[in-house]
Design brief:
This protein is α/β, with parallel strands linked by helices. It has nine helices and 41 strands. A hairpin with a 3-residue loop joins strand 4 and strand 5.
């Protein structure tokens, strides 16, 4: 097998291992899960650092850790005197506690109503009020708890229906702009634009903001850029769904600016529409793992993903049944770098580049790397049923390209003049086209 999310898989397994040590303290475990997006980066740092320390030095650090004020404040009284011996002997559990100590105390703001608007007289904490308080680190709206540093907003189950835009931020936006570090723990709640409401996107993240969505569904947003989310800062999406949103660019997500980063894990992005980037339009940094992008459409190009001059990494994911009227129903990599590992790209259709288009210039601009991946049953009305490599660099390793179809050239792979295609230990077979059924030329 080729390279995949090896470091990320190790960290994810270590996180789960550390979390298991808190089974006897379910409140702690729940709080850790809610704050996963905030805690994971410092956890990864401390887990790696602890593994490198000699045992004696690690034990001394763990003993000091147990006396940390932040950790003591976080733990319940029953656990403050002496933690179970197994906890201090676990590198993963110790790394979790060090991450807590590093991030310090953070506010938890519990939303108590499904009406997301601001109303300081109703005695309920709404989602809009919670976001404002989190941004302000204050009780701007007295019905909600004050924000403090990185904040977690806990939603009640049900639908939070947005009936009007809250602000204009590069277009009408239904909720206050995320301007600080905010995690929304959704409990499977839905945030949706009401069908009778005027067009607006659901959420926006400013340069200064970082939004983590856990177990949230977003639907019904409509904007020029970013139907569901406009991202200029940091965006992490875990175990969530984004469906039924529309835009000119980025039906679900539009991400741009030098600070923009998007990480998507364990999520589904389906049935979104745009002219370019039916699901996602990204200019900077995009990582997708253990997720599915399906049934998205673009009236021009990039049915699922349009990666423009950015970095895309796709791991253990499925890109299926997306459509583009012109090019690249699955992934459109234009002057960027795209790396695909252990994934399936199937059933996508376009005029050309049914599965993927890699557009570039020589070996340095427009680079596509595919490892341990299946490209199957994609179709093109003209050329490149599987992959269109237009002037760029394309490496295929340990992968299979089969059952793709083009009505003219390159049923499997179309490689034009000036482009570079390198294949190793891969199968390119049983594709169909009048010219170059498997590889053209």
């Amino acid at each position: 097998m080729g390279a995949g999310l090896r470091d990320e898989d190790v960290i994810a397994a270590a996180w789960n291992s550390g979390l298991a040590h808190f089974n006897d303290a379910p409140n702690i475990a729940a709080a850790l899960r809610i704050r996963r997006g905030v805690l994971l980066p410092p956890f990864a740092f401390w887990y790696s650092a602890l593994r490198e320390l000699p045992r004696g030095a690690r034990r001394a650090l763990e003993r000091r850790l147990l006396r940390s004020r932040h950790v003591k404040d976080f733990l319940p009284p029953s656990a403050r005197g002496r933690l179970p011996r197994k906890l201090v002997r676990s590198v993963a559990a110790a790394a979790l506690l060090l991450a807590l100590a590093q991030t310090g105390a953070a506010a938890t703001i519990t939303v108590t109503t499904n009406v997301p608007a601001i109303d300081d007289s109703d005695g309920n904490c709404s989602l809009a009020e919670a976001i404002v308080n989190a941004n302000d680190d204050a009780t701007t709206h007295p019905d909600c708890a004050a924000g403090s540093g990185p904040d977690t907003i806990i939603l009640p189950k049900g639908t939070h229906a947005l009936t009007a835009a809250f602000t204009d931020y590069a277009g009408a936006t239904g909720l206050p702009v995320i301007a600080s570090d905010i995690t929304i723990a959704g409990n499977r709640a839905k945030i949706a634009r009401s069908k009778k409401a005027p067009a607006f996107r659901l959420m926006a993240v400013a340069d200064s903001g970082k939004l983590t969505l856990n177990e949230v569904a977003l639907s019904g947003g409509s904007a020029d850029i970013g139907g569901a989310i406009l991202n200029y800062g940091g965006l992490e999406i875990n175990d969530s769904t984004i469906s039924g949103n529309t835009a000119a660019k980025g039906g679900a997500i539009y991400s741009r600016r030098s600070t923009a980063q998007v990480v998507i894990h364990g999520s589904g992005i389906t049935r979104n529409q745009a002219a370019v980037g039916g699901a996602i339009f990204s200019y900077q940094y995009l990582i997708i793992a253990d997720s599915t992008l399906s049934g998205n459409t673009a009236s021009s190009e990039g049915g699922a993903i349009a990666n423009y001059d950015g970095y895309l990494r796709l791991d253990h994911s499925t890109i299926s049944k997306n459509r583009a009227d012109r090019a690249a129903a699955g992934i459109d990599n234009v002057y960027g770098t795209a790396k695909i590992f252990n994934s399936v790209i199937t059933g996508n259709s376009a005029m050309y580049g049914g599965g993927i288009e890699n557009y570039g210039s020589g070996s340095t601009i427009g680079k596509l790397y595919i490892y341990d991946t299946m490209l199957a049953k994609n179709g093109a009305a003209v050329y490149a049923g599987g992959v269109a490599n237009i002037g760029g660099y394309f490496k295929l390793a340990d992968s299979t390209v089969t059952g793709n179809k083009a009505n003219d050239r390159g049923g499997g792979v179309f490689n034009n003049a000036g482009a570079t295609f390198v294949a190793s230990n891969s199968t390119i077979a049983k594709n169909k086209a009048p010219n170059g059924a498997d590889v053209y030329p």
